Every structure is written in structure tokens, then in C-alpha cells.
Prior knowledge:
Blueprint: H1 3-15, E1 28-32, E2 38-43, H2 52-65, H3 76-86, E3 95-100, H4 112-118, E4 123-128, H5 138-144, E5 148-151, H6 155-170, E6 172-181, H7 194-206, E7 209-213, H8 214-220, E8 236-239, E9 260-263, E10 270-275, H9 278-283, E11 290-296, E12 311-319, E13 322-329
Parallel strand pairs: 3-4, 4-5, 6-10, 6-11, 7-8, 7-10, 8-9
Antiparallel strand pairs: 1-2, 1-3, 11-13, 12-13
Bound molecules: ligand AOF and zinc ion (ZN).
Amino acid sequence: MDHPFYMRLALDAAWRFQLLTYPNPAVGAVVLDKHGALLAVSAHERAGGPHAEVRAVRDAYARLSGDESLNGCEEALRLHEALRQKAGRLFEGATIYVTLEPCAHTGRTPPCAGLIEALGFKRAVIGTRDPNPQAAGGIERLKAVGIEVIEGVEKEACERLLEPFVRWRAGRFVLFKLAQRLNGTVDGGTISSEASRRWVHRLRGVADRLVIGARTVRTDRPLLDCRLSGDRPPNVTILSRRRETVDRSIPLFFVPGREVEIADRLPEKGLILVEGGPALLKSLEETYDWLLLFIAPRLKEGLGYNGTQELIKLHQSALGEDITVWLKAKHG
Ligand code: AOF
Ligand code: ZN
């Protein structure tokens, strides 16, 4: 069995929900049957929802049994109970890959390690340990009942995936999001595909604050809501050194249920999403944690980002028509 290969499948699945799981970590899981055939690839999608392992086991169960009654179920407790009741010996000899140590605690959902144990998995391949002491302990628990545990597969990549979780637990994580075209231009209307914009709206829905520069507020007059995902609109911080220059007739001030503040610095706690252009990016080069670029397969004249910051690529994937690239400044 090519452990790194299957772990990378789990990693790719998890990255699609990176940050969307806030305040939980992004986690991916893969299930193979007793012959080593691939049954399911899945990820944790939102806090309060089923963990990655449980969603992967749900899909693997449907493949193995032909029973479709749990397909699409996102209720963690119901899944735990139903899988324990229905799976019988289907998972005997099976292998599960998880980017993060399966939890051993009852949080908003029951413990994943308990489910893996109850279903009779033969082997668990785990990327990295859970830095949350309340949830950790799954590795010991699995070993104690005789499940073969292989630890540290693609460890660095699994730790990288977990970095925002570690940072916001310690205080704050700042993501700067920028959309650009192939030739680097960032102005002149909509840039990224609908799938990318829907993803960003989901992120707005979970972030503690959406931060935007006073210049963008002035020129784009944006609404900054979550209309494509149906989530609650985020509270907004407008970065400005001169409070009085922000025009309060701009639509974003009138989105119901939202608070808007004008401040000269970033909020200090939680998950902070910054949406802005090249000027704001330049001014926050030393401050943000990660940069997420959406690159749309189009060309158009205009203003571009001319930064020369040294960046480390963390991950890339496709979203709709676009390419998304997660980057980190070298200073970070
Ligand atoms: C896993 N698999 O996919 C994730 C885990 O409140 P809960 O029940 O959702 O538990 C949240 C904690 O569980 C979170 O702080 C982290 O330590 C762990 N996340 N564990 O086995 C997963 N997302
Ligand atoms: Zn869990």
C-alpha cells in the first residue's frame, strides 16, 4: 500500500475546506477495503458537522453495503449511531488514513477513535497528532485495542494543513485573499469564477471579521455579504487612518445584522479575512499569515500586483475555472 499516495488524497480533500471548518481544523480521510481498494475520500467540512473519518466511513459504507440510506447525512450523532448498528463486519481488515489523529473526546460530536475501533478497522495511518489536548489520545486508544497505527505519513504536509488551527488557537490567523487574472491584473470588475466566489462567501460566513481597505470601499462600493452561500454576513472592519473619510452611504453599511467598524489596525483575535488590492497587500506584507490567490484563466488590461515578497507555496488546487494557490510569506 502506498501510504503517502493515499495520505495526499486525504490532504487534497481537506484543503478544499481549509478555514471553512473554523474553529475546527481542516482534516481529510480516506478508506480502503481489506484488499486495498479505494472506497472513499472525504473531509471535515464545517464545525459541528461530522468529522472527516465519519464522512469517509459513511461513503465507504454505502459502497460496501449498497445501502444508500446514510448518503448525504451530515448529522454526526446519527452517523455514529447508524454506522455502529449497520456496518457489521464490513470494515474488518480495512484501512483508514487520516491527516490528523482521530479524536478521543466527545465534543460537539462523538469520538472518531471509538467508531474506528467499533467497526473493526485493521489499520489507521495518521499524519500528525492533535495539538488540542482535549481531543488528543486517539492514537493510544487505537493501539490499546490492537489496531495497527502507522504515524507520521506525510507529516510535514499534515502539519502545514493544521497551521491555521494552531495559530487561531493561540490568538489570531490572518488570511489575505486576492483574485487576479493570468496577466496579474486585479481591477475592472468580477475576476474569479462563481465557484470561487461561492467559496469565498462561505469563508466570509465563518470568519470573525472581514477586513477591507478604505480605498476598495470607496472605489468598488461592495456589499460584502454571503449571497452566494446563504451564510450570515460577516462583521466588517474598514482599515483607514482617517475615520471621517469613509462614506457611510455605501451599501455594506446597510446589510442587516452586521457591525461595521473603522479602525487603523487589524482585529487581534480569531479568524480574520482580508480582501483587498495590491496597495493593502503591500501595507500588510509583514502582518498577514497566509495569502490565498485565485487565478482566473483570463486576460485583461489593468492594475496588477507588483510585489516582490518571498513566498512559500503551501498548496494549490482547481476551483471552478480558477486555480487557487495558498502561499505563506517567508517571514511567517
Ligand atoms: C477528528 N477529525 O475531522 C476533526 C477533528 O467539537 P468536535 O466534536 O467537532 O471536536 C472538535 C475537535 O476535534 C477539534 O478541536 C480538534 O481537536 C478535533 N478535530 N478530529 O478526529 C476531524 N476536525
Ligand atoms: Zn473526530
